[in-house]
User: What shape does this take?
Amino acid sequence: MKRTLIITIGVIVVGGLALVGAYSLFRGPTLGVLVNVLRFLGTPIAQEDTGATVEGPSFTEDRDSDGLSDAKEEIYGTNSDLPDTDGDNFTDGAEVRKGFDPKVAGQGKIADNPELMRNLTIAYFEWARETSNIEDPQLAEQGIQTFLISRKQDRLILPTVEDNEIVRTDASGPDAVKAYLDAFAQVTLPPVTASYLDLAEGSLQEETQTIIDTVVLGIDATYEQIRRIPTPQEAIEVQRGQLATMKALKELFLDLKSVRRDPVKLIRDISWGNELVLKSADIEKKRQELGLITNPAFQNSNQGTGDSNQ
Ligand SMILES: [Ca+2]
Ligand SMILES: [Ca+2]
Assistant: This one.
């Protein structure tokens, strides 16, 4: 059974690899991160690929015997060496199983604590508890997918780009479009020292926080370079798309900082990352089509479509 799981995941990675080529930041994924996610899913894994042992909090071990596994203690932010974190005489495990906040003494509900509920994994556990009546829900691929669909989080929605984020130029026509495309060709992508999935794997092991900060700064700088390009009417859609994908990319990398405490978010984001690659390829295609406007042959067959021809 283990073997089947690994092969299934392998196919997903290979499928992803073909797509990631379109977007350099996602280049070079390894199996490691998905193996790690599987570990979070509670599947014991013999790592045939690297031979390495994956370190991470366990969903089966419970160091302080309070009924809440070490992994869940990390997710809920409770003390894995203290059975009753908030000292209200109810153990962390007993509280979580009944939907009570293990970090605040008293009768407060997890569902009423916005900070806890912002954690997608906790929200998933609460959802599983409520909908399936399971006291101690575990991470399971099928359940997570159903949960994400119920939250309308199964598909990536690109962030909004406001009108005032686009620097418009009144110029239009082939020359203006060419100037836009030339300026865009000068944009440098963020220097990347590791792929998203490598960073994700490192994040699960708390090793890559500073690299993520560097990547995010690089994405910000790239976003700003793109944003400042004077954009003619013809290029607005492309410009909006470029900015939106940079914003989405930044969010995905920022999310990596908290995935150790929120594995469901990582599972969602890996899927969103693949969608982002597709959306980026789509925008890239539109940008290339825009280049056709500046092609003399195209201009000759479309006389009179622009009024700024010289
Ligand atoms: Ca415990
Ligand atoms: Ca307690």
User: Anything to note?
Assistant: The CA atoms of residues 24 and 79 lie 40 Å apart. The radius of gyration is 24 Å. Confidence is low (pLDDT under 50) at residues 1-36, 38-54, 304-310. The chain has two domains: 1-56+158-299, 60-138.
